[in-house]
């Protein structure tokens, strides 16, 4: 916990010293500085600090994110972290790594946390089989939460019983089959990061057959909008229609405080993605 808070502070300090990108030419119609300040000050849990670190990185040092041009600066992630992730928790029946340490339980939220980390670690250590694990985990989560199936082969796009929306949690502890928008945002944004990482590692064609197609309240909306803006830049042929301005131009102002730590971070992520698309 203190490690994560330290990481957040380091990212923030680093982003201040590493050529911060001026935001002035990219005015979204709401006070992005106020949202960013909230995004940094509100987190109190590990995943909120992690999301804040990610949002500040994209906001202030976008070239170092997996969507930027220098995503793998020299760093050393201790291999023990990867061993823990891959080997410590009881797997779901189709081989999926669960969100929980004690029970096999799958949460859409997980998609933003573990697969992007596994993919990044794999690309950084030049480990193709590990990169494939990150990709397969996305597919296996998709099977369970989108198709309510435990198959190991991907179900065809367009055949989900929930019209393309992911259910939130499958498992014995906190089963929650609702179609939570933020859960869908976590899933989409996590898969976009895995896709970008594979792309940067020149492995996308190997994993997907070339087109990246397998990756098929305001927090969820802004995170999903961030993904849409990212995909326009990442895969303009597959995503030609995601244009327009941030959808929160007016509503974000009254919602800034009630948004909470995650919501503020999602708005920062959306802004950073929109800014990139607008360049
Ligand atoms: C790649 O990662 C896997 C999983 O952690 C590990 O078992 C394997 O030894 C790694 N391969 C290389 C070449 O480092
Ligand atoms: C998938 O496996 C889980 C156990 O891990 C089981 O509870 C569930 O019913 C299975 N779902 C389907 C659709 O077979
Ligand atoms: C991907 O390919 C480009 C061009 O060949 C190369 O500059 C880059 O270093 C490669 N990236 C990785 C992670 O191997
Ligand atoms: C990787 C893995 O363990 N996949 C399993 C997922 O579940 C199906 C059964 O539905 C198995 O056939 C796969 O081997």
From TrEMBL:
GO molecular function: hydrolase activity
Keyword hit for Cell cycle: no
Record's protein name: Secreted protein
Organism: Mycena maculata
Superkingdom in the source lineage: Eukaryota
GO biological process: carbohydrate metabolic process
Keyword entries, A-Z: Hydrolase, Signal
Organism lineage string: Eukaryota, Fungi, Dikarya, Basidiomycota, Agaricomycotina
Gene3D superfamilies named in the record: 1.50.10.10
Record's signal peptide: 1-18
Coiled coil spans: none
Pfam families for this protein: Glyco_hydro_88
């Amino acid at each position: 916990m203190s490690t994560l808070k330290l990481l957040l502070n380091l990212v923030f300090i680093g982003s201040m010293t590493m050529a911060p990108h001026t935001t002035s030419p990219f005015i979204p119609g709401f006070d992005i500085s106020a949202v960013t300040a909230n995004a940094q000050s509100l987190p109190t849990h590990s995943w909120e600090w992690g999301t804040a670190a990610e949002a500040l990185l994209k906001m202030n040092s976008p070239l170092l994110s997996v969507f930027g041009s220098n995503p793998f600066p020299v760093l050393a992630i201790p291999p023990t972290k990867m061993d823990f992730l891959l080997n410590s928790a009881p797997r779901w029946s189709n081989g999926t790594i669960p969100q929980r340490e004690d029970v096999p339980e799958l949460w859409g939220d997980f998609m933003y946390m573990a697969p992007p980390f596994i993919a990044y670690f794999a690309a950084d250590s030049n480990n193709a089989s590990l990169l494939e694990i990150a990709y397969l985990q996305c597919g296996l989560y998709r099977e369970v939460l989108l198709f309510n199936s435990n198959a190991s082969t991907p179900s065809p796009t367009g055949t989900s019983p929930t019209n393309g929306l992911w259910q939130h949690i499958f498992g014995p502890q906190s089963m929650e089959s609702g179609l939570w928008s933020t859960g869908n945002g976590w899933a989409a944004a996590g898969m976009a990061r895995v896709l970008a990482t594979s792309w940067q590692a020149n492995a996308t064609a190997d994993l997907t057959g070339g087109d990246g197609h397998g990756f098929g309240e305001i927090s969820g909306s802004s995170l999903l909008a961030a993904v849409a803006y990212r995909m326009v830049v990442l895969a303009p042929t597959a995503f030609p229609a995601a244009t327009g301005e941030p959808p929160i131009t007016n509503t974000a102002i009254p919602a800034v405080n009630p948004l909470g730590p995650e919501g503020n971070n999602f708005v920062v992520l959306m802004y950073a993605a929109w800014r990139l698309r607008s360049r």
